[in-house]
Amino acid sequence: MSESEILFEVKDGLGVVTLNRPKALNALNSELLAELVAALESVDADDTLHAAVLTGSERAFAAGADIREMAPKSYMDMYKANFFAGAADRLAAIRKPVIAAVAGYALGGGCELAMLCDFIIAADNAKFGQPEITLGVMPGIGGTQRLARFIGKSKAMDMCLTGRTMDAAEAERAGLVSRVVPLADLLSEAVKAAQKIAEASVPIAMMTKEAINRAYETTLAEGLRFERRVFHAMFATEDQKEGMAAFGEKRKPAFKNR
Fold it and tell me: What do you get for the CA distance between the two ends of the chain, in Å?
């Protein structure tokens, strides 16, 4: 491999990761995913970094998984390698907040990668889709599961069975993305959002992320019980004491992340 499949930059307490396969429209191959996992896990392990932004190019966040890598594989190749599962599971396990800044195409694995992040800020030229059916397969990095949870059964069926794309405006209406911004402002808006998160207590942000994710994996009653227990546990932190004291004293809190 002559150059890195990703670019990684540390900026003001954030890790900014840029997918870097421009000639392949950032198609996801094993090397790129391995580097991406390593970069985001390094953010998780670094106490000086509080959040991450994941982005691609103006033309493509990621246009899909690398078809050339997958096409010759057999069932047994895919099964024994547990293809995509290792990287996807490790990305889903990142504890610090990760924002996807999506411009251009986010198709197939690219759409699934964006959904693995905690929320998506989309440029006004973004296009989302799960066109795998046109290749004789279906989504395999969580597309049939996360998409249905995010936008509902009907739209998920529509996208996965017809392969049609969804523009940024529709994606925002459907709840797939949190907001749409002009292309020129995409990275700055994503970094601004990540910096806002970074101002908060890191462990409290991590617990909040964990609680919201629990909503997709359990019943309402169990989710509410989990939320209540984590909320109560926050009163054992120094940052809860500092945050509430700062509010009473009308000053900005100085969180110590403990």
Answer: 41
